[in-house]
Amino acid sequence: MPLTRRFVLALAAGATVSGLVRPSWAAELAKPPGKAILRIGGSIGVHNVGEEAVFDVPMLEALGTSRFSTSTPWTDGVATWEGVPLAVLMKAVDASGATIRATALNDYVADIPMAGLAEDGAMLAFRRDGELMPVNNKGPLFVLYPFDREARLQQQSFYMRCAWQVARLDVL
After folding, report:
1. Which of 123, 132, 137, 152 is the most exposed place for a label (fewest CB within 10 A)?
2. Low pLDDT (below 50) residues in the chain
3. In sequence order, what DSSP letters do the residues of 68-88 get, joined into one string?
4. Cα of 100 vs its chain's centroid, Å
């Protein structure tokens, strides 16, 4: 049996990815064994703590990460950012809404359209230049786009979608 098919069958039978999370189509999400850094609520179909999906860093990593290098209006120079693509995260929680509302630790709110997440490269970053981001340096989570990739991303409408020190996402 091909490895991919064995992997899918093992997941369907109850195995977990990295011992933490099963894919969203399995409609189940383990509780975070480590310190929770993200809560997702609203119009989602996958929950692990009440009506929310709660994640620690290893759970986010288990969804699959990507990285890009870009400058931002809020940081000096070009940095390499790593995190989970927002489109992947929304699929993992079975999101069904038009907008993601990101709320930061200081109650700052940014609204992010669900449309175009993958095409625009929207990411929920948790590493900057290979290091987890502390709260005092835009962490633990930062919603951002690969601004240097395309000139169309370097405009206020995309900058307004970004937020650092993100603690919560709500799907509206």
Report:
1. 152
2. 1-26
3. EEEE-TTSSSEEEEEEEEHHH
4. 11
Domain coverage including residue 135: 3-171
**Under 8 Å between Cβ of 21 and 62:** yes
Paired tokens of 135: 């709260």
Task: DSSP for 93-133, please give it.
Answer: TT--SSEEEEEETT--EEEEESTTHHHHT-EEEEEETTEEP
Number of domains forming the structure of the chain: 1
**Domain containing 60 — which CATH number?**
3.90.420.10
Long-range contacts at 106-111 (CB < 8 A, ≥ 24 apart): 106/165, 108/163, 108/165, 109/163, 110/143, 110/160, 110/161, 110/162, 110/163, 111/160, 111/161, 111/172
Predicted confidence at residue 50, as pLDDT, reads 95
Longest dimension (CA), the chain: 51
